[in-house]
Amino acid sequence: MSLLELESIRKCYADKVVLDDVDLRVDRSDVVCLIGSSGSGKSTLLRCVNLLEQLDDGVIRLDGREISDPLVDPREVRKRIGMVFQAYNLFPHLTVLDNCTLAPRRVHGVARRDAEARARDLLAQFGLSEHVDKHPDRLSGGQQQRAALVRALCTGPEILLLDEITAALDPELVGEVLTIVRGLAEAGTTMVIATHEMSFARDVATTVCFLDQGRILEQGPPAQLLTDPREERTRQFLGRVLPPKG
Amino acid sequence: MTETWSPSDRELERRRIRRRQRLQRVSTATAVTVVVLGLAGWGVTLTPGWDRFQETFLSWEDAKDSFPSIRHGFWLNVKLFLVCEVFILALGLAVALARQARSAWLAPVRVVAVVYTDVFRGIPTILLVLIMAFGVPALNLQGLTTDPYVWAGVALVLSYGAYVAEVFRSGIDSIHPSQVNSASALGLSRPQTLRFVVVPQAVRRVVPPLLNDFVSLQKDTALVAVAGVFDSMFAARDYASYNFNFTSYVVVAVFFVVMTVPLARYCDWLQRRWMERERAGAL
Fold first, then answer.
1. pLDDT at B281 over 60
2. Which residues on chain B are in Cβ contact (under 8 Å) with A71?
3. What is the pLDDT of residues B162-186, one digit of tens each?
4. ipTM (interface pTM)
């Protein structure tokens, strides 16, 4: 049984169809990369999985249980899913450490000492030891995004949703964030990643999905999809974003 | 794509469930409201003095009798409020901006602004009304009116101007420095930055607390009664002392409530419209 299953997902804003009949299966330790141009529905798809958006149709199952059911408490679902946003969305009034321990302490009922120990541990792993007690705005973009990753990981989520987490970073900082994500992938973390970094997708993804106008036009292993796509539209897109071979 | 889609059975079932949940919420809310208000109302009528209270505060006859003079006086309150509000907004914004001034030449302005807010926020409004309405005419200044109505209005402007200045200032301070940076980067001068970038955002942010101050001002226009101005409050007190019946006070209260509610709703509406326009799709 897949950890996460999406079946005929449909989502509209007013009369604009953003997701149209999307199917997706994510198994444990899978790393699924969503690629496609801006506005193709990648972010919306992630937001739907975390129940930040209400579906217009379709079913989402987590561990075989339907979570798109209105009778399911969304907070129970979100406890098991971690999410990182493009704009970091760290809380500016809290220190990095407090950002990371907020949910473990208030939502998961972890004792302050344990939560802080775990957060410090993860922050150290991600090279943020010296920034633990600073407020987020004092950090560089790359450091902020790493802190945001730690915040998401501190609750021990079963799935991590990453929404274009490197889109706001310069190329040098992109590297430091992606190295961490690569490490997570190797450690077997299940992830769904919306990204524009094709080479990263090729390296870490177990499956790559190409989204176009709210549909998954094709999906497959990165070696196949990124080098020899079936669809003409995918070929066009890759032609524009991949550096020319030479 | 859109035409061929029709909701699946699961979706239809979900909608039914959501509808049921909504209905449940609405009916719970209604039931709780009715019970709580019902109990409160019932509790009041059980008080030993309820009959007397009804006679002296809720007499229909007295309400009708006092209505015309209160309405007449209330017009004075409305005029005072409308005029004062304009001056208060201007004064408050000017003082808030004066405190933002960075130029060395404007240092005295900054000091005056700080002293002004400290002093006038500290004086009880009713004292300020008395001092201005009786004190200024006593100075026998040539060419200035001695009308207590005008000076009471000036007192309100000075008092509320200090509050509103602080509200504006907190709004200005809440705008992220990156906004100032990007305005500077475009070559805007500091006054231009404030005028075109910071203040418009700050004003939107402080509409709710501003409204709060204005509702308060609307009520405090009744303070001019202490200076002998024949406003609605004065009319009500007049009626009460002649007829030994306090219903006129309730009538004034209703007048004030009726005036403040539409303003609150208008501001809510305005804020929602701004939010929809600026946050549309930006999540």
1. no
2. 17
3. 999 999 999 999 998 888 888 888 8
4. 0.75
Q: With H, G, I as helix, E, B as strand and everything else as coil, classify residue B210.
A: helix
| Contact assessment for residue A40 and residue A213, using Cβ atoms and an 8 Å cutoff | yes
In a domain, B142, yes or no: yes
Task: Look at residue B244 and tell me whether its pLDDT is greater than 50.
Answer: yes
Give pLDDT tens digits for A155-173. 999 999 999 998 888 888 8
Q: Is the residue at B245 inside a domain?
A: yes
Q: CATH number of the domain at A1-29+37-78+212-246, please?
A: 3.40.50.300
Encode pLDDT of A61-109 as tens digits. 999 999 999 999 998 999 999 999 988 889 999 999 999 999 999 999 9
Q: Which H or E run contains B141?
A: none
Domain count, chain B: 2
| Nearest-neighbour CA in chain A from B16: distance (Å) | 10
Does A20 contact B at CB distance below 8 Å? yes
> B21: which chain A residues are within 8 Å (Cβ-Cβ)?
70
Q: How many CB pairs under 8 A join A and B?
A: 29
Minimal Cα–Cα distance from A74 to chain B, Å?
A: 14
Q: Does A109 touch chain B (CB under 8 A)?
A: no
Nearest CA in chain B to A214: B1
Q: Are A191 and A32 in contact (CB under 8 A)?
A: yes
- C-alpha to C-alpha distances, B106 to A61, A159, B116, B188, B199, nearest whole angstrom: 65, 58, 15, 20, 19
A13 touches chain B (CB under 8 A): yes
Structure tokens at B30: 């209604």
The CATH fold assigned to A80-206 is: Rossmann fold (3.40.50)
B14 & B86 share domain: no
Mark whether B116 and B24 lie in a shared domain. no
CB–CB of A8 and B281 under 8 A? no
Cβ of B11 within 8 Å of Cβ of A69? The answer is no
Region of A72 (left: φ > 0; alpha: ψ -120 to 50; beta: rest) is: beta
Could you tell me if residue B209 is inside a domain? yes
Give the pLDDT of residue B17: 93
Quote the pLDDT of residue B208: 83
Task: Tell me which residue range forms the domain holding B11.
Answer: 1-42
Contact between chains at B11 and A56 (C-beta distance less than 8 A): yes
* Closest to A22 measured CA to CA, from A36, A35, A5, A37: A5
Q: What is the DSSP letter of A245?
A: P
Q: What is the value of pTM for the model shown?
A: 0.75
Interface test mutation site (partner A, options B8, B12, B14, max chain A beta carbons within 10 A): B14
| Residue A57 forms contact with B (CB below 8 Å) | yes
Percent of chain B with pLDDT over 70: 97
